[in-house]
Write a structure and sequence with these properties.
Number of strands: 0
Radius of gyration: 15 Å
Number of helices: 3
Order of helices and strands: HHH
Largest sheet: none
Amino acid sequence: MHGILYGVNNIFNLYFFLIILRIFLSWIPSIRWENQPWKVIREITDIYLDIFRRFIPPLGGLDFSPIVALIVLQIIQHIVIYLLAGLVV
């Protein structure tokens, strides 16, 4: 059961990293999002980020929705890990 807990935690951490990577890549104007591997990164992360973009409009040309999305992802991660850890005991 500890392996499942470790695996789930790593999946959350990987997704967190992909969102951070997506944020940094968005600052590079020469990125061609239709090319691989950028297309996959965009598709995987935008599924989640678009949820927050619907509710949080850009302010002054800056998109703050990824910050909120990362905070919510961390909260969900802690809740899931806590619940799974309760099953281990």
